[in-house]
């Protein structure tokens, strides 16, 4: 198993410090996952407006927002207006081709003083005609096993399938542990994996990760990788089959 550790670069987006993991000079994508930002956790003072990202366009990709704490109001040029809350997903599809695209804004609603979220971009397959779209997913599959809590936000895992639309083979899995323990996460042959730590410390096959560090793993023929949180920790596993991704 080939392993690469990636440390975030900090950027300012709408007045909020953002930890950017992808693209990175060491590794630009994980399959169709082509962009990864971790925002927060951030707490706003009473007089602060929170995140205020003005209108900006996208094309030939999807934006995938996974909310951990707080709320964000999404508005776009298709006329959608949707507040996203913890454990919910917003998926905006900008469409493919020169005639497609979406402009949108992201703002902290009035009275909300916390922000913690992950936003990823998904490269769309250019050989398909895909129309612009926006979907909100208020509930995702959740379960507990071996002392850990799981939320499946994309793809299929452990006999469950997330409702989020896919145009490429992908996986998104939120993992929260309550104490130091060892977990084995099944890896699919040929898939590429990334594990991002939101909180605490996690050891992946002998390498220690802390907040805003991403471990990139390229899986050999089926073999689980071992995740060993050294304390109560929160992490997320992102994966894709690069052999079946065409961008």
Automatic annotation (TrEMBL):
<dbReference type="InterPro" id="IPR003829">
    <property type="entry name" value="Pirin_N_dom"/>
</dbReference>
<feature type="domain" description="Pirin N-terminal">
    <location>
        <begin position="23"/>
        <end position="122"/>
    </location>
</feature>
<dbReference type="InterPro" id="IPR012093">
    <property type="entry name" value="Pirin"/>
</dbReference>
<protein>
    <recommendedName>
        <fullName>Pirin N-terminal domain-containing protein</fullName>
    </recommendedName>
</protein>
<keyword id="KW-0408">Iron</keyword>
<dbReference type="Pfam" id="PF02678">
    <property type="entry name" value="Pirin"/>
</dbReference>
<feature type="binding site">
    <location>
        <position position="106"/>
    </location>
    <ligand>
        <name>Fe cation</name>
    </ligand>
</feature>
<keyword id="KW-0479">Metal-binding</keyword>
<comment type="similarity">
    <text>Belongs to the pirin family.</text>
</comment>
<dbReference type="InterPro" id="IPR014710">
    <property type="entry name" value="RmlC-like_jellyroll"/>
</dbReference>
<feature type="binding site">
    <location>
        <position position="58"/>
    </location>
    <ligand>
        <name>Fe cation</name>
    </ligand>
</feature>
<dbReference type="InterPro" id="IPR011051">
    <property type="entry name" value="RmlC_Cupin_sf"/>
</dbReference>
<feature type="binding site">
    <location>
        <position position="104"/>
    </location>
    <ligand>
        <name>Fe cation</name>
    </ligand>
</feature>
<feature type="binding site">
    <location>
        <position position="56"/>
    </location>
    <ligand>
        <name>Fe cation</name>
    </ligand>
</feature>
<dbReference type="GO" id="GO:0046872">
    <property type="term" value="F:metal ion binding"/>
</dbReference>
């Amino acid at each position: 198993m080939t392993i690469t550790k990636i440390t975030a670069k900090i950027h300012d987006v709408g007045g909020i410090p953002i930890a950017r993991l992808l693209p990175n000079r060491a590794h630009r994508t994980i399959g169709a996952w082509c962009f990864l930002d971790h925002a927060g956790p951030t707490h706003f003072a009473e007089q602060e407006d929170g995140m205020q990202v003005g209108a900006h366009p996208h094309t030939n990709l999807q934006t995938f927002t996974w909310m951990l704490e707080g709320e964000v109001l999404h508005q776009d040029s298709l006329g959608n207006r949707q507040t996203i809350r913890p454990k919910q997903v917003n998926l905006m599809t900008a469409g493919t081709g020169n005639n497609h695209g979406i402009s949108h804004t992201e703002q902290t609603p009035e009275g909300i003083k916390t922000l913690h979220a992950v936003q990823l971009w998904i490269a769309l397959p250019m050989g398909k005609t895909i129309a612009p779209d926006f979907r909100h997913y208020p509930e995702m599959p959740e379960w507990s096993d071996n002392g850990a809590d799981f939320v499946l936000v994309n793809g299929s895992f452990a006999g469950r399938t997330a409702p989020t639309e896919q145009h490429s083979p992908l996986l998104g899995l939120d993992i929260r542990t309550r104490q130091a323990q060892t977990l084995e996460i099944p890896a699919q042959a040929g898939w590429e994996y990334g594990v991002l730590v939101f909180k605490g410390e996690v050891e992946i096959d002998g390498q220690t990760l802390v907040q805003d560090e991403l471990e990139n793993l390229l899986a050999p023929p089926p073999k689980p990788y071992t995740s060993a949180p050294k304390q109560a920790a929160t992490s997320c596993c992102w994966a894709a089959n690069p052999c079946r991704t065409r961008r």
